[in-house]
Amino acid sequence: xxxxxxxxxxxxxxxxxxxxxxxxxxxxSKTGGAARGGGLRGRQPSAAATAEVQATxxxxxxxxxxxxxxxxxxxxxxGHLSVDILAALAAELGLSQAEVHEVASFYHHFDIVxxxxxxxxxxxxxxxxxxxxxxxxxxxxxxxxxxxxxxQQGVRVQEVSCLGRCDKAPVAVIGQQPVEKADAASLLSLLxxxxxxxxxxxxxxxxxxxxxxxxxxxxxxxxxxxxxxxVDACIHTLSAAGLRGLGGAGFPLxxxxxxxxxxxxxxxxxxxxxxxxxxxxxxxxxxxxxPHRFLEGMLIAAHCVDVAAIYIYVRDEYHALRQVLADxxxxxxxHAQKQGQDLPxxxxxxxxxxxxxxxxxxxxxxxxxxxxxxxQRPPYVAExxxxxxxxxxHNMETLYWVRDILEQGAAWFLGHGRRGRxxxxxxxxxxxxxxxxxxxxxAGISLRELVExxxxxxxxxxxxxxxxxxxxxxxxxxxxxxxxxxxxxxLQPHGGFxxxxxxxxxxxxxxxxxxxxxxMEFFEHESCGQCVPCREGTQRAVQLMRAPDWNAxxxxxxxxxxxxxxxxxxxxxxxxxxxCALRYFxxxxxxxx
Length: 593
Known about the structure:
four-stranded mixed beta sheet, globular
């Protein structure tokens, strides 16, 4: 392990820390107050909590960067985090209790219970409240389940942000078990017959390592390692193909690799699988089918940029997928060892329910065990990122295409496209269409073509009224723009963007006004709170948008401040749906002039 890098959790084994070292740190933190005079100060953990924390962590490293991983251990075990456990964990890691508390309180999936307070119910029923599910009646489902379970002990109902299964709306989760196309009858039936193994996310059917190798998998990576392929030639091929970041930003891959390579080693690679944008689920679908295509692309990137270690950040809602990656990485590492090859250390990190951690620097903060607060730039992540080292950051799908492009050439990828656009795009399609799902289509396809050729047309009784081209942040367009090309840089003149290609289609049964409010409520809930324009702006926008009459001039003034002054893309893009609703759907509003 390079000296710059905290020895975080590896997939195969944890690096041991001697109990005596932990005890010394713990003792040092306890005697600090006494050394200054006055004895111990502040909350002191109970002996029972201290013993539980030490036994649970065992010989795992007491590293600051693993704080969130350890918080998950106790949240999973107890269904909440007591302040006693937080105090014991702080002492064990040599951190202040304030620091541990601020991290635990930042993430939605941690439940802190104060001393003497009532712990939450042991089982949580989460119902998605975001766009695609809202269109399918999730609000009514939540109200019905609250009424039905009002007298039932042991279950709490929560409305939550997007769960990443928008093609199966409405979606609920019992414990960790997703329930697709949920209704009250199915949820009650499941709650009355708990599975013997607990409420777990079932493992998907996917192509494992043996089948992937049989199909030529890892041949490109082996050629690179053996010198049969040139690194610069690979970067040139990927650049010629026009492969760009597919998490939303669209930064050219080849340029990013070259920039990170130009900075001094050691370098790191951080992979973002925290797709929390409402309407987005492509990363989950691809990984549930073929995880090694991504892993090979990731290792090719690591080889070309010469990184010292890899960190994969997986959203917490993808429990089964995280286990798939852990299992397959372990098999891949064992296979590499048999071949006499060394892979860079690969660390899996578990998100904790924060949309903001899809932003690259917020994700890096979370990997380091901190609140997911976006960083001010410069310096940029490529120069000073994870653990202050030059960091190559990528969305999962971007790396998923690396092998195919290097095998088949840039011309193959560029051979797809319409209306002068080049390449392929993975669209997460949901809403009022007959065949929602992930559809691979030519770049530059129009919404109308996407719905008719891939989405099976509009559902019976529904007429195209409008669509979100890029999830909640990409704006809202009317049916009159359904023939515009869907691609990078084509939608900005209309006030939107394609982002992660999360396309949500709505009909005359829906209202742009209500959907814009839903999107703004999402941003209000997910704002990290770091900067005033976003924190206060989203709250004030929701208040104004809930009024019977929208004050359009005031909303536009607020939107301008948010767009100009917010630190990151969340606050900058949050006004897009509201602005588009006023611009393209004036018939739905009574607004001040």
